[in-house]
Design brief:
The chain is an alpha+beta fold. Helix content is 74%, strand content 14%. The chain has a domain of 34 residues. The chain starts with a helix and ends with a helix.
Length: 74
């Protein structure tokens, strides 16, 4: 049951991602330390979402690690 729910959520996320990409084809200027150029707005939004997810996962892992070290020291 959980696998089907995960598959449905993944399919909805893919469809929404494709919609965002297709509805935002405008080119935007991206100027980072290591890259400078133009990309479609949908791709920039997707990259920002992925970067935010990575930061959130890192912060969660750090919080769990701190909680685990606190428990083991007690």
């Amino acid at each position: 049951m959980f696998r089907w729910l995960l598959l449905i959520v993944l399919a909805v996320a893919v469809v929404l991602g494709l919609m965002v990409g297709m509805l935002n084809p405008q080119q935007v200027l991206v100027d980072l330390f290591f890259y400078s150029g133009t990309l479609p707005l949908g791709a920039v939004m997707l990259l920002c979402f992925i970067a935010g997810m990575i930061v959130a996962l890192f912060m969660d892992a750090l919080r769990r690690l701190m909680r685990l070290t606190k428990r083991s020291s007690e």
